[in-house]
Amino acid sequence: MNKPLVIAHRGASGYLPEHTLAAKALAYGMGADYLEQDVVASRDGELIVMHDVLLDDVSDVAQKFPLRARDDGHFYVRDFDLPELRSLKLFERFEGAISKPVFPKRFPAGTGNFGIVTLRDELEMIAGLNRSTGRSVGIYPEIKRPAWHRENGFDLAEAVLRMLAEFGYERRSDPVFLQCFDAAELKRVRHELGSNLKLIQLLGDNSWGEAATDYDELLSAAGLTDVAEYADGIGPWIMQLYKFDEMTAVKSSTGLVAAAHERGLAVHPYTFRADQLAPGFSSMAEMISWFTANEDIDGFFTDFTDKGVEVVNLLQRQLP
Ligand code: CA
Question: Could you tell me the distance, in angstroms and rounded to a whole number, from the CA of residue 319 to the centre of ligand 1?
């Protein structure tokens, strides 16, 4: 059985607004193995750590810049320069209005003094913490919507690789996993851009529209073999790993982890949330135990770093 890596999904986002430096510092202090950065680009070509190309549901952009939405009604990071982005406040993720948080029991809606984070800000903080603590916590950046960025005049993968190299992340052995939903882009990162980093192919559902990638194809035996040619692992949605029968309350494996392992691919599923459990589980601890013991996952993305670390350590102590 592996000791699964605890990957802080958008930081300790179960406790503080996602992708703020505070959420990352908390996850670091709670013992995460890796901290995740979703990366998008601003108008002036700065790399911004944000889950989405949109600012709508995590900031006060609609109040500060009401006239800057596109015709579709959305506010895009790519339409703002860094000084403008720095003037925004970030909040707990909401739906439609700052006062309506997605997770009502998390950090109080509309409160706190949190600002936009650049990839440079965050890599500097992690490098600094690694120096001051003597630890070696890794990074887990995601290239967000590379095809969209290209249509909007920016080569995101190239810029991310350049920034990572500046911070010394260049070799396979460096503590970094680079992830992307777009298979064509990840192949390009490996073969055209010549990256030696560990690459993770994210797997979604075709209905989400994350990329032009066909995930049904990638999940097939031939598809996984193709992924193993350019990537070091997969990041599947948790529901791609198991099925739960409501009638019998029986959980059964889809066999994806075993199929990935046969091809030498690590498996890091998303997202383990204490306040949004996967079907058939009564706690996040039970989820971690089941996926570790029954599926032998290599890591997991979680919003609750401390709970993840606690259970992983407990499972290790129970090993013979
Ligand atoms: Ca992500």
Answer: 31
Instruction: Name the active-site residue from 9, 19, 149, 268.
Output: 9
Residue 252 lies in a domain: yes
Q: What is the pTM of this model?
A: 0.98
Question: Does 74 participate in catalysis according to the annotation?
Answer: no
**Cα(293)–Cα(118) distance, integer angstroms:** 38
Distance 317 CA to ligand 1 centre (A): 30
The answer to the question of residue 198 being in a domain is yes
* Residue type at position 123: L
Q: Which helix (H) or strand (E) holds 21?
A: helix 21-29
pLDDT at position 84 over 80: yes
- Digit-coded pLDDT (tens) for 114-133: 999 999 999 999 999 999 99
pLDDT digits (tens, 9 = 90+) for 44-63: 999 999 999 999 999 999 99
User: Which amino acid is present at 263?
Assistant: R
* Residue 210 belongs to some domain of the structure: yes
CA of 51 to the centre of ligand 1 (A): 6
| Residue 9 a catalytic site member | yes
Tell how far the Cα of 78 is from the centroid of ligand 1, in angstroms. 18
The domain in which residue 189 lies consists of 5-53+116-317
Q: What counts of helices (H) and strands (E) characterise the chain?
A: 12, 11
